[in-house]
Task: structure prediction
Amino acid sequence: MKVVVTGASQGIGYEVVKKLLSETEHEVFALARNKKKLESLQKYDLNATYHYQAFDLLKEHYHKDLIPKIVKSVEKVDVLMNIAGLLISKPLKDLTNKDFDDLFNMNVKSIFKLVRDLLPHFNKNAHIVNITSMGGFQGSAKFPGMSLYSASKGALGILTECMAEELKDQHIKTNALAIGAVQTEMLTKAFPGYKAPVNSGDMADFIIDFALKGHHYINGKIIPVSLSTP
Result:
């Protein structure tokens, strides 16, 4: 499978790429801002073919600066895992216009741009998996300081449902996983001192299995994946 993974330099994204690289049947293209972290993945067992690109998803001009590099490496994409995300935790009164723009640009707009510009380069029966959050899942527990983050993840869930409808005639499936508490750097920043019941490696196993197989049974769904609150 030819797999593109964003947010590959830390947390769940890093674990996803590390695990994919251990399997011979994959060709992996990893994206993140931190080139050294992407390079560090080469120290693991490289049974798969590995490509990587340091790229800031907040940049413009994907069609010129990013898409040609992906296509040159993997030609056609079977699975796109949109794991990259931004979390800003502040009381509502302290949030700025820039905070709003940064959160929605990373958590929603960057995914829209990447999917839109990759559309001609997906294989038939490709699967797009967007990683959203229980914070953006309707009816879930909400927490102070997380209003804009949760709103951006909620927007990503709706975008996922709309993508699935629009892309079904192209035989591209789109789903979202609303992840609960996972022990990552991002969680530690948002909830200092909290110990999550799931680590990033175990969640990576679940995401990989779903990304490779879930679209045979599910399309256009936002699926909660959580053991606890937060």
About this structure: The helical segments are 11-20, 35-40, 62-65, 67-74, 97-118, 147-167, 185-190, 200-213. The mean pLDDT is 92. DSSP finds eight helices and seven strands in the chain. The longest strand covers residues 122-133.
